[in-house]
Specification:
28% strand; 6 helices; 213 residues; alpha/beta; 31% helix; seven-stranded mixed β-sheet
């Protein structure tokens, strides 16, 4: 599937109708989501025929992208039931088989099948300090091959240090810098739309060292 085709399909998905500020719910736009998953697949082969988990999946954009790019199995994990309802409708519209689970990522005790790749757009940690790092910590425990995640560019040094020293990643690499459009979803937003510089990271967990990665 070509990048433009993937972006077009993702652009038709429903997004949050009533976003919750405490969960830092911002939709992952089709531009970023398509590039994130397209890179994961075409540069690293981390999506097609793999088990992919979308942490904090919201309305399911990243999970849908993974399924469209040929993932063997996609699991979406989200704490908010309203978002999961939209994610379920989105999967139905695209005729995708995505396993949606209501759960708080930080309480995730994973005993299911092996997850190859985790993709996520975690909370930026601006409302609840450290929320982004909780997601990253759990993702690196669960993924066997790679974690793809978006984090504010301003936190780059902190993210790299934490991933390598605290969360046992064998590598932490910024693949590209993207502009994340945060539309005026909440009352405290003064501007119509804010552009935030975000990094697309690829982390490799320690377990995968020496397996040709």
């Amino acid at each position: 599937m070509k990048l433009k085709q993937l972006e077009g399909l993702l652009g038709d998905l429903q997004q949050f109708s009533n976003p919750k500020v405490e969960l830092e719910q911002y939709p992952t736009g089709p531009h970023i989501a398509s590039r994130m998953l397209f890179t994961a697949e075409n540069s690293f082969g981390d999506i097609s025929s793999k088990v992919v988990a979308d942490f904090g999946c919201g309305c399911g954009t990243l999970g849908a992208a993974a399924a469209l790019l040929g993932a063997e199995h996609v699991i979406g994990i989200e704490i908010d039931s309203q978002s999961l309802e939209i994610a379920s409708l989105n999967a139905e519209d695209l005729e995708l088989d995505i396993n949606l689970i209501q759960c708080d990522v930080k309480n995730l005790g994973w005993r299911g099948q092996t997850v190859d790749t985790v993709v996520m757009n975690p909370p930026f940690g601006t409302r609840k300090k450290g929320a982004d790092m909780e997601f990253l910590s759990v993702a690196l425990k669960i993924a066997s091959q790679a974690v793809y995640s978006l984090h504010k560019t301003s936190t780059r040094d902190h993210i790299k240090r934490a991933a390598l020293w605290d969360y046992n990643a064998s590598s932490a690499e910024v693949l590209c810098e993207l502009r994340f459009d945060v539309p005026q979803l909440y009352k405290f937003h003064k501007k119509k739309e804010v552009d935030i510089a975000v990094d697309l990271w690829r982390f490799v967990p320690k377990v995968n060292q020496g397996k040709g990665d």
